[in-house]
Amino acid sequence: MENSEKLTNSKEVIAYIAEQFPKCFTVEGEAKPLKIGIFQDLAERLSDDPKVSKTQLRAALRQYTSSWRYLHGVKAGASRIDLDGNECGVLEQEHVEHAQKALEESKAKVRARRKEQAAAKAAAEGDAKPKKVRAKSPKARNVKPKTSKLDKKPVETTRALSSDEVKVGKDVSVNMGNGNMPATIVEINKDDVRVRLTNGLTMVVKAEHLRS
Known about the structure:
By secondary structure, the protein is of the alpha+beta class. The longest helix has about 40 residues, at about 95-135. The protein has a 5-stranded antiparallel beta sheet, with no helix packed on it. A two-stranded antiparallel sheet has the order 1-2. Helix content is about 45%, strand content about 15%. Among the domains are: about 10-105, ProQ/FinO domain (Fertility Inhibition Protein O, Chain: A, Domain 1), CATH 1.10.1710; about 170-210, SH3 type barrels (Roll). The protein has helices at about 10-20, 40-45, 55-65, 70-75, 95-135, 135-140, 145-150, and strands spanning about 80, 85-90, 170-175, 180-190, 190-195, 200-205, 210. The chain has 7 helices and 7 strands; from the N terminus they run H-H-H-H-E-E-H-H-H-E-E-E-E-E. Helix 1 (about 10-20) packs across helix 3 (about 55-65). Belongs to the ProQ family.
C-alpha cells in the first residue's frame, strides 16, 4: 500500500527519484549536470509508477536544476550524465555562463529579501519606541486644572443684578456654580429668566443666578 501512495510535493519527488536513480540525482552536496532531454527519459522510466505524474516530475526537475547546489555543479569541464550516471558530453560554455548568471541573480534576490526583512524589523522596533513616550503625557495633563482655576478667579468679581437691571436684551453672566457663563436675557417671567448662551442654547434660570 505504501508504494502506491502519491507524492505530494517537489521535495518528496526529488527524494524519490534520487532513491530510484542514485547515480544521477542527489539530495545533498553538489549536483551533477543532467543530460539534455532527461525529462523524457525520466517520464518513460517512471511511466507506470503510480507515485508520480509527468507534471510532478517536470516541476521537480525545474526546482532541482534551479537550486544553488545544481548551478554550482554546472561549471567548465564538467560532463552531463544520464539516469544511470553515464557521461553524455561536456557542458557547452554558453550553458556554463547561463548557470553562473542564474546563480548570481538568485543570490542577489535572497540578499535583497534579507535586507528588506531587516529594514522591516528595524522599522517595527522603531515604531514601538514612541509608545513608551506617550505614557509620560498624563503628567502634562495634570497641569491644566491648575491653570483653569486661575482663570476662574477674575469671574468672582461679578455682582448680582438688581431688579432694574433684569430686562430683555441685557448681556449678563449666569452663575453655573463652578463658573460664570456669558449670556443674553431673551424672556422674563417673574423670577424665571430665559437666557441665550453664546453657543446658541437657551435655558431658564432664577434671577438671583444672574451677574453683571
